[in-house]
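Hi R.,

Here are the chain sequences for the assembly we discussed:
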Amino acid sequence: MTESRAISAIERPLTTVDVVIFTVRGGQLQVLLVQRPDGPGEPFPGAWALPGGFVDVRLDDSLEDCARRKLLDKTGVSSPYLEQLGSWGGKSRDPRGWSATHAYFALLPFESVQLKPEDGKTGKTAQWHPVNALPPGQPLAFDHAEILQTALERLRSKVEYTSLPAFLLPEPFTLPQLQKMYEIVLGRPVDKSGFRTRALAAGFLVESGAMEVGSPRPAMGYRLKDRGAAVYFPRTFSPRSS
Amino acid sequence: MTESRAISAIERPLTTVDVVIFTVRGGQLQVLLVQRPDGPGEPFPGAWALPGGFVDVRLDDSLEDCARRKLLDKTGVSSPYLEQLGSWGGKSRDPRGWSATHAYFALLPFESVQLKPEDGKTGKTAQWHPVNALPPGQPLAFDHAEILQTALERLRSKVEYTSLPAFLLPEPFTLPQLQKMYEIVLGRPVDKSGFRTRALAAGFLVESGAMEVGSPRPAMGYRLKDRGAAVYFPRTFSPRSS
DNA sequence: CGAATAGTGTCTTTCAGACATTATGCC
DNA sequence: GGCATAATGTCTGAAAGACACTATTCG
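And here is the predicted structure of the full complex:
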């Protein structure tokens, strides 16, 4: 049994955290990617990858702390929507050895991001890429394509029945703007009337006064009642509320 | 940057896998727990814990392999429903150092389990415990209470709109038996008519001939069309199918 | 025949989808 | 007034919840 061996004798896998950071820019869902460094011994040199890296047992009190640190480092955003996605681990995903990564996914408004023009030391650059138009002919490093795919599926699935897209907008926002976020993520139009009814009934919005938004008629502005958590819309198999 | 340090110099967290194994026995949802060993340096000696342990980089090709190995070891079951639950990691969850665990949850029919009467070497015993009546006054080891809680929430939530409870039954089973599984997990009665309609419409069942089941009238037996995956019932915000 | 369980039918309410209509502000 | 967008109203069909009813087997 593993437990009966001395702790120090146990061979420990490499432990990393990767973050799938989504935003919407120019009407498209985009993901933040960084380029792998070129140094000796570096795996996948020059390839695009999800931002992430080793857990630093001195800096990070927890996995989520680690994810937040990497997110802050790359985007300057300190409190986006952040959710654990899952973990991927095995002997062959990293040429340097048995490794396990803890993947998170984050949503943030494009306007809140301050990308560093260039990461001085390593020359690595972070860039937004439309999820439907990743750099062609250049597969992502490690198993990051699979992780990104899972993140996309999770996002699209949850958008069907949660308030997640609200975290893609700066506050305050209007209902038509929010509807657009849903449409962009889902990749299909959403009926206005039904959308409004459901969004308002879900009770995650608070009015914050009318907004000028560049269109003829001003619209009501809204804020999230609780930026800390997403709201789930009612599901099936549940007893009717009222 | 962590990446610029030599790989060998990076302090690696302990890496474990834990499995929350559910079954239904005696009309109750139960979870399999093991007792922590008593040896020197062992954390939480004697406490109940989720089955799990260190990843063995020699034995395990992947995290899921590791979970399956532990599951087979404890229950003798080789292909239950198995799903990743999430990961928990931090500096203080294990007194032996910074550690990260990858948690899985499994569903299996009670009848398929062969618990070893006792694990010879360590004297550890595995036992079923009703989730509503864990050993009183004895908190679970590590953060396993939190992991179990998360597993329960995930299970109860998914039961609302998936075929998960079917994995708690040996095949073939009848619709009334399946309905009972839903009711046990959800903790409330479910309407027979509606249940039958939805379950059959979801299309994850295949008829397999009538069964004697100890009740006056025989019932139709069913098997799962695909034991490899759960089926999701239709959700909201989606275009009508027909 | 009665008891017990399996399985079906019916009614009603809710609600999402589709689409039409009204409201408001700017040119 | 005309236009563009915001917001609301109306109709319909699908489906879930509730509950009544029929069917089959055993004693």
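Confidence is low (pLDDT under 50) at residues 236-242 of chain A. Chain A has two domains: 2-158, 161-224.

Let me know if anything looks off.

Best,
T.
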